[in-house]
Specification:
heterodimer, A: 60 residues, mainly alpha, 3 helices, flat, B: 642 residues, alpha/beta, 15 strands
């Protein structure tokens, strides 16, 4: 995933000095966003996407 | 790095059947041909092949365009095929369309495997291959009309040319915006969900409305604050620019006065020097005459005495003796005779001989009597004059050097842009500045109140929600989503700063090579407005640069966006590179293109091959092609190959 986000984005995330969990979440959100770029989101898409992310985090 | 190796065009607009191969992965490729010969059409064909639409406007009319060749048969296809090498892989992009069908046609992408066989890519991989050549959303940075080159850095309303917009796309800051907007949407969904299950739904409704309306107020105020801050930056810059112009004008006035004074002083000194030189000449002449008389008649007087005693006619003066004495006189004075002086002395010499000897003698004797006393004072006077002339010349030289410097300073000064009434304009700007600063203070104060209000409303909302256990889980997520949005905003702020610095440094790296040394950098402010930085950190408007330099700045930005920000190298395709600039400004642009061509392919369309070819060094140009419209459509021929 790290490789998928560009180098500057990774540096900016690091520079923002977030909690480790939050940092991971930000990376995941942006990674998903990049994957879904140029696609239209439906309500279902958005909910599914966020729920999945948060669930993953809770499980971790 | 994407490299186009070949383009084949069939039945596309003016082209019936044409092909062009590119032999190197970098360098300049020149295309020339008359109007309507097919220059823009070639660029459009490449663009159409990749994206299925038309970018350059010459064949686009009110949004409608037809890619078909007029004389093609109904059974034939319009087709453009390109071979492109991307990171050691060869791809074939082929787009075709039937005559009269939808103009975007169908794209087929194939990739050559290690075994040399071609395999067709599915639509998702084909899209990815096109993106590897060049993503559609930033293609206007690579295909462009030279006349519009400087638009790259102007922040006009056009989305395509807006620098900030382009930077967001290239650096992918736009991902953060998308994410924030999607998360806000999600947050609202959570809230709706919470309300559905919550027994306090009415209260939650009201509190949510409160939160929303306070958020709307904060958003509006934040936008207004940003606008007012932009306005303050803009006005401050205007004042700085005006001050710079005013200062320059004052400086220019002083310099003009100094120039007039110096010119007058130099003229006066020139007069004095001429006068002193004439005095010196007179002294030299006097000295010569007296020296000549002194020497010439010393012996002659004795001869004369003898002649008198014997009542004889006085003997003539030997011309050789006279010349000898003349030389002695010259040596004594250390003076080099001018041609005119030589002539005069020769004439006088001749005159001596012609004059009646007696009269000559009398003059001589009289003069001789004076000579012993006269010579030393003349010598001192001569010395004084020499020193005086030296001082005057030295003074004049110093004034002339100063004048030269003044003139040089005046030459680079631009006093033409002075407003009609600068002081009045400045006062008006200052009044506006004060007004906007007041707005900012008031915005900031009330924003603080609103934020406190929001915090309170949110806490109350959270309380209302948490009273209902069934909503607690979703509420946790809603709060987390909120926090995530804040985190993303922070990341965006960090990234903006980094990217702007990177864009600035990368642009300067290429742009500085063609700018005069008086500039030490460029500045890109928060609204992505570009300025030049002069020595001493003074910010100067880019409009001070020549049109050639401005176009080169556009190219530097394109290069920075395409390479410095981490994007792979793509070819540049430029229609009419030197459009709308005079040939005196070609140099900077040519140099910039030559520098960039060391790493990428640059295709340039121009009217006149010889004219554009003449601009580039032979080693930079990798191919020259002439486009000609014939009855069989546009043909592409290598230029210079018989």
């Amino acid at each position: 995933m790290e490789n998928y986000l560009n180098e500057d984005m990774m540096k900016a995330i690091e520079a923002a000095d977030l909690d480790k969990d939050d940092e991971e979440l930000v990376k995941k959100v942006l990674f998903q966003e990049k994957a879904k770029k140029s696609q239209v989101w439906s309500e279902g898409d958005a909910a599914e996407y966020m729920n999945k992310l948060l669930l993953e985090q809770e499980e971790a | 790095m994407a490299v186009i190796t070949s383009v084949q065009i069939k039945n596309f607009r003016t082209y019936k059947n044409a092909e062009v191969d590119f032999r190197d992965n970098h360098g300049v490729y020149l295309f020339a041909g008359n109007n309507m010969a097919g220059k823009s059409t070639l660029l459009n064909a490449i663009n159409w092949c990749l994206y299925g639409d038309i970018l350059l406007h010459s064949i686009k009319n009110e949004g409608y365009y037809d890619v078909a060749n007029d004389s093609m048969d109904e059974s034939e296809l319009t087709e453009v095929r390109m071979y492109v090498e991307i990171e050691d892989r060869t791809y074939s992009f082929r787009r075709s369309v039937k005559k009269g069908a939808l103009q975007d046609g169908a794209l087929e992408v194939q990739m050559r495997g290690d075994d040399g066989n071609w395999s067709r890519l599915d639509s998702i991989s084909a899209g990815a291959a096109v993106r590897s050549v060049l993503p559609k959303e930033i293609r206007h940075l690579f295909f462009f009309n030279g006349e519009q080159l400087q638009d790259i850095y102007t922040n006009n309303d056009s989305k395509e040319h807006n620098l900030k917009n382009n930077v967001y796309k290239v650096s992918e800051i736009d991902l953060i915006d998308y994410a924030t907007s999607h998360l806000s949407y999600l947050r609202d969904l959570y809230l709706r969900e919470i309300k559905k299950h919550n027994s306090n739904s009415e209260k939650i409704d009201k509190l949510s409305e409160d939160v929303k309306s306070i958020e709307a107020v904060i958003k509006a105020k934040t936008e207004s604050l940003a606008k007012n801050m932009d306005k303050v930056t803009e006005i401050t810059k205007k004042i700085n620019d005006l001050d710079a112009i005013l200062k320059e004008t004052v400086d220019a006035r002083h310099l003009l006065e100094r120039r007039d004074d110096l010119t007058a002083e130099i003229k006066d000194l020139d007069g004095q020097i001429i006068e002193e030189k004439m005095n010196k000449q007179d002294l030299v002449r006097e000295y010569f005459h007296k020296t000549i008389l002194h020497h010439d008649f010393k012996e002659y007087r004795e001869a004369l005495d003898v002649a008198r005693e014997k009542s004889l006619i006085p003997p003539p003066i030997d011309p050789k003796i006279t010349s000898e004495i003349l030389r002695t006189g010259i040596c004594i004075c250390g003076h080099t005779l001018t041609d005119e002086e030589k002539k005069n002395i020769e004439a006088q010499d001749a005159e001596y001989k012609q004059r009646k000897e007696l009269q000559f003698l009398t003059d001589g004797i009289y003069a001789f009597a004076q000579v012993d006393q006269a010579l030393p004072p003349i010598r001192f006077a001569y010395q004084d004059i020499c020193e005086k002339i030296y001082d005057l010349t030295d003074k004049r030289d110093r004034k002339a050097t100063e004048l030269k410097k003044v003139n040089e300073q005046l030459e680079v000064m631009d006093t033409a842009n002075l407003p009609d009434d600068p002081e009045l304009t400045r006062t008006r700007y200052e009044e506006n500045l004060q007004k906007y600063n007041m707005f900012i203070i008031s915005d900031k104060n009330s924003l603080e109140d609103n934020r406190a209000e929001l915090k309170k409303a949110k806490t109350e909302l959270e309380k209302a929600i948490s009273k209902d256990e069934s909503s607690a889980e979703i509420e946790k997520r809603r709060v987390k989503t909120d926090e995530l949005i804040e985190d993303l905003e922070l990341v965006k702020a960090k990234m903006e700063t980094m990217i702007r610095e990177k864009l600035r440094d990368q642009t300067w790296k290429t742009f500085s090579k063609i700018l005069p040394s008086e500039y030490v950098g460029i500045d890109i402010d928060e609204s992505y407005k570009i300025s030049l930085v002069a020595e001493g950190g003074k910010i100067r408007s880019v409009n001070r640069a020549s049109t050639g330099q401005l176009k080169a700045l556009g190219l530097s930005l394109v290069n920075a966006l395409s390479t410095g920000l981490g994007y792979s190298e793509a070819p540049l395709l430029i229609d009419n590179l030197y459009g709308d600039i005079s040939d005196t400004h070609y140099t900077e642009l040519t140099e910039m293109v030559s520098n960039l061509s060391a790493k990428k392919q640059i295709m340039i369309m121009n009217l006149d091959m010889e004219k554009v070819d003449h601009e580039f060094k032979a080693e930079v140009v990798k191919g020259r092609y002439m486009l000609e419209k014939t009855k069989d459509g546009t043909v592409i021929e290598e230029y210079g190959n018989e």
